[in-house]
Amino acid sequence: MLLKFLSHISPFRGMPVDNKNGSSGVTAITGETVQLYYYTAAGVLTSDAGQAAGVAVVGKLARNNIKNSLNNQQANKDDTSLSFTSTALTTEVEVNWAKIHSVDGVTGLLRLTKIVEGMSNGQYCVDYATGTIYGKKASTATTLTSTAYKVNTLDTALTVWDRVLGVWKSLQNNLFFFRGMGTHFTPNDGTAAFTSTTTITCAGFPFTVDDTYCDVLSIVYKPTGGLWTILENGKDGVSMVAASNVITVTGASTPFASGDTYRVAIRYQNKGYNAASNSGNTTESNPLSQQYVELELIDTTNVAAATNYYPSADGQVMDGYSTLWLQGMTSGGVTTTIEATLDDASSPDFLDITPYFSNMIVNPNAVAASYVDVNFLIRALDLRVKKWRVKSVTSDGTNAVQYHAKMTSI
Hints:
Elements: E1 26-39, E2 45-47, E3 56-60, E4 83-85, E5 91-92, H1 97-102, H2 108-115, E6 123-127, E7 132-136, E8 143-152, H3 160-171, E9 177-178, E10 188-190, E11 197-201, E12 214-222, E13 229-232, E14 239-243, E15 246-250, E16 261-268, E17 273-274, E18 279-280, E19 292-301, E20 306-310, E21 316-317, E22 323-331, E23 334-341, E24 351-352, E25 358-359, E26 371-372, E27 375-380, E28 387-394, E29 400-408
Parallel strand pairs: 5-6
Antiparallel strand pairs: 1-2, 1-3, 1-8, 3-7, 4-8, 6-7, 9-16, 10-16, 11-15, 12-13, 12-16, 14-15, 17-18, 19-29, 20-28, 21-28, 22-27, 22-29, 23-24, 23-26, 23-28, 25-27
């Protein structure tokens, strides 16, 4: 079935839409070779290099929204314009749309594994909306050759570069986004012959492949009489290095000839996407684990006989925190209580709230009216007061007084 209902829409998959007024006919794609890919156990998408029968593979056509034989609607298993030659994938089966939609938001390895689940060797299914083929191999063949299918002809009002970008974006499966023309880079046209090693000077090329923002170099090229396509760094034996506005292309089989037209661009990684783990990056700007204030109120000996308040007689503002932890270590005739207030006067009245605290050391959760010459760790939950202070009464000048506090949101 096609995507026709709102219930089938996800953040990852759009409704297939034809431009009714922009299409100028049918384009029959012929002679395309589709590389098959598999995922390693670590989840890395890798070119099929002769993997054995039974391995799950995926391939991507250069165009999407593949049409049926009459070209009047999107193709399906029983009415399609798609054909290819391969001993790896031999028998098309119906797409399980519920299964495909259920794995839009997972890793590529899990997506492929789920989609081919239950397939026999040689069976495959086609997502005609995206031009993606999923299957389980029946032989060690690595490509689909002589691939042919029909698509709507692109609007002639579009520039060639716009057409290339459409293909480029579909090939990337939304994992990367194209930075665009203008401020961030200047494309370069050329008609030079490509050999095993070629250097291309790119005026205005702003950064290199080693920069933080750039992860892949690509050359978009158009063989004489052929279709615009993409050559990527690290694929098909091709290596590209950018430095000082010059790209060096190395590869014994670079598919260029004299007179071919090419453009050079940087494919820019989305900062919210982690290519190494094939997952999205998320951050929490203000996690609860960082919402706290720690205070050392006093740590000394031989405080003069008096009534003292910590951190001061004015008290400590509770701000938006809701839990107060207090640690005390006293000896030599020291009586400790805790006071709090909701009074917003300049000199507020404080009230004794010591029994509100739970002792975390002796008799856990027990409460006390005061703490005299003992070590204590106490806690008050949901303490919605304006200010608090520790009241410390020393009976003489021979003592040890140590108080620490922590205010938290949890």
